[in-house]
Write a structure and sequence with these properties.
By secondary structure, this protein is an all-alpha fold. It has a domain at 207-234. The chain contains 23 helices and no strands.
Length: 453
C-alpha cells in the first residue's frame, strides 16, 4: 500500500468514526471527507458528478417524494382504521399491525414505514385496544425484513442493485421467498413472546358525558360542572370507534395515490420493456404523487430528507475515490485469501461480516463500502450470490442491537415520548434472538441459491 492509499484509507476510516460516534452530523462528515479527497488528488474534480452516482441519488429522491405524498393522501391511515374496525381480538389486531408493517416496508423505506406504523399503533393503543410495547419491538424488526423484497424497498437495496446491475424482477423473485420465510419466523417468535403477556381488549362502549369531557380536557371536572354537562340534551357521547386521526374515508385522492404507487412498482418491473430507466421511473412516480397531493410544491420539497441525499453524495465520492486508487481491490483480495479460494463461502462471509458491522454502523455507508468490494470479488471469480449475502446482512444485522437500525431508534423514541417506554434489555433479548434466527435461515438460503445459480 503506497502513501496515497494509506492516507486515503485513514481519512475514510476517520470519517466513518465521526459518523458512528455522531461527533458531528453525518452529512457534514461525509462532505468534509469528499472535499479532502478532492484536495489530496484522490478524486478528479472533472469527474465529480460521475463519482456521486447520480442514478442512485435520483432513485432515492424520487422514492422520498412518493413516500411523502402517499403519507399526505391518508391511504395508510385508512388501511389501519379498517384493520382496527374488523379485528375480533387484540391478538389478531396485533398480527394485522405487524403484517401491515411488513407490507408498508416493502413499498416505503424503513424509516417512513416505522414512523407510520408506530404512530398508528400508539393511536390504537390510546383507544384501549392493546398494549403497544411488544408490538413496537417486533414492528422495528419486521421493517428490516420487509425491506428485502423490492429493489427500492431500502437504500442499501438500491445501492447493491445499481452496483451489481441486478434487474428489478430478478431482485423480486430472489428476495421474496426469503423475506416471506423470515416474516413467518418473526411472527412465530412474536406469538411465543405473547404467551407471557395477556392482552385485554376493551369493547366499544357508550361513554358518560363526564368521562368524555375529562378525557378531552385532561383534567378532573368539578361537581357543579358535572351537573351542567349531565343536563345537556341532544348530544351523542358514544365511543364511535377509532380515534379521529384514524377516521379516514377512501375517496378519489386515496384511490389515485394507490394507483400511482402500484403504477410505479409495475413500471419498475417492466422497465426493460417500456424503455425507461429506474431513476426516471422513481422521479416520474414521485413527481406525479407530489402533483396529486400538493398545489404548492415548496413545503413538500422542504420536507425531503436532503441531508441524507447529500450524505450519500459525499460518501459515494469517497468510496469511488478509494476504488480509483486500488484500495477496494485490495480489500476484496484480503477476503479472497481469508476463504482460501473456497468461493462458496464468500456469500456467507459477506453475510455475517456485513450483519455484525451493521449492528453498529448505519447500513447505508456500510453497504456503500461493501458493494465495490463485492463487485471485485465477483469479477475475480466469486459467485454472484455475494450480492444477496450483502443485501441480507446489511438489512438484517441492525436487529442485533437496539440502536443498530433507524427503525429501532424510532421505536424506542416514539414509545418514550408516548409515556410507554421500551425496556432496552428486553429489546436486546428479542432483537438479538430474532436476528440470529434470521441470519441462520439466510445462511441456509444462500447455500440453496448457490446450488441453483
Amino acid at each position: 500500500m503506497n502513501a496515497l492509499q494509506l492516507l486515503s484509507l485513514t481519512i475514510f476510516l476517520f470519517v466513518l468514526l465521526l459518523i458512528v460516534s455522531e461527533s458531528i452530523h453525518r452529512t457534514y462528515a461525509s462532505l468534509i471527507g469528499a472535499g479532502i479527497f478532492i484536495l489530496i488528488g484522490v478524486v478528479n474534480p472533472e469527474r465529480l458528478l460521475e463519482y456521486m452516482e447520480l442514478d442512485i441519488l435520483c432513485i432515492v429522491f424520487g422514492m422520498m417524494l412518493l413516500v411523502r405524498g402517499a403519507e399526505r393522501s391518508g391511504i395508510f391511515s385508512y388501511i389501519a382504521s379498517r384493520m382496527m374496525r374488523f379485528s375480533p381480538s387484540s391478538t389478531l389486531l396485533a398480527i394485522l399491525l405487524l403484517t401491515f408493517t411488513m407490507i408498508l416496508t416493502i413499498f416505503l423505506n424503513n424509516i417512513g414505514a416505522m414512523l407510520i406504523s408506530a404512530t398508528l399503533t400508539l393511536l390504537i393503543a390510546r383507544s384501549g385496544e392493546l398494549r403497544p410495547q411488544t408490538i413496537l419491538i417486533f414492528q422495528a424488526i419486521i421493517t428490516n425484513v420487509g425491506g428485502l423484497v423490492l429493489m427500492v424497498s431500502s437504500i442499501p437495496n438500491i445501492i447493491v442493485a445499481m452496483e451489481g446491475g441486478i434487474p428489478f424482477n430478478s431482485f423480486l423473485l430472489t428476495m421474496t421467498p426469503i423475506a416471506f420465510i423470515l416474516y413467518l419466523a418473526t411472527l412465530l417468535l412474536y406469538l411465543r413472546e405473547l404467551k407471557g403477556e395477556r392482552l385485554e381488549r376493551r369493547e366499544l362502549r357508550p361513554i358518560k358525558p363526564l368521562e368524555w369531557v375529562e378525557d378531552l380536557l385532561g383534567v378532573k371536572v368539578e361537581m357543579d360542572l358535572e351537573r351542567e354537562i349531565g343536563s345537556l340534551n341532544g348530544f351523542n357521547f358514544e365511543r364511535l370507534g377509532p380515534p379521529p386521526e384514524l377516521r379516514v374515508d377512501f375517496g378519489p385522492l386515496q384511490a389515485a395515490a394507490a394507483a400511482i404507487i402500484g403504477g410505479t412498482i409495475i413500471a419498475f418491473a417492466l422497465h426493460a420493456l417500456i424503455g425507461a430507466t429506474p431513476p426516471l421511473i422513481a422521479l416520474a412516480g414521485g413527481v406525479t404523487m407530489l402533483m396529486l397531493v400538493e398545489k404548492e410544491p415548496r413545503e413538500a420539497l422542504g420536507e425531503i430528507d436532503w441531508p441524507t441525499i447529500l450524505f450519500l453524495a459525499g460518501l459515494f465520492v469517497m468510496i469511488n475515490g478509494l476504488d480509483n486508487i486500488g484500495v477496494i481491490e485490495m480489500a476484496s483480495l484480503a477476503i479472497s485469501r481469508a476463504v482460501h479460494g473456497r468461493g462458496y463461502l464468500m456469500p456467507i462471509v459477506v453475510l455475517w461480516l456485513s450483519a455484525f458491522a451493521s449492528a453498529f454502523i448505519d447500513n447505508i455507508p456500510l453497504t456503500a463500502t461493501f458493494a465495490p468490494i463485492a463487485k471485485h470479488l465477483i469479477v475475480e471469480g466469486g459467485p454472484s450470490t455475494i450480492w444477496w449475502g450483502l443485501i441480507l446482512g446489511a438489512n438484517l444485522g441492525g436487529n442485533l442491537f437496539p440502536l443498530g437500525s433507524p427503525s429501532n431508534i424510532i421505536a424506542v423514541g416514539v414509545a418514550e415520548q408516548e409515556g410507554k417506554p421500551l425496556s432496552i434489555k428486553r429489546f436486546t433479548k428479542i432483537g438479538f434472538t430474532a436476528a440470529s434466527i434470521h441470519l441462520f435461515i439466510s445462511t441456509l438460503y444462500l447455500i440453496v441459491l448457490s446450488l441453483h445459480l
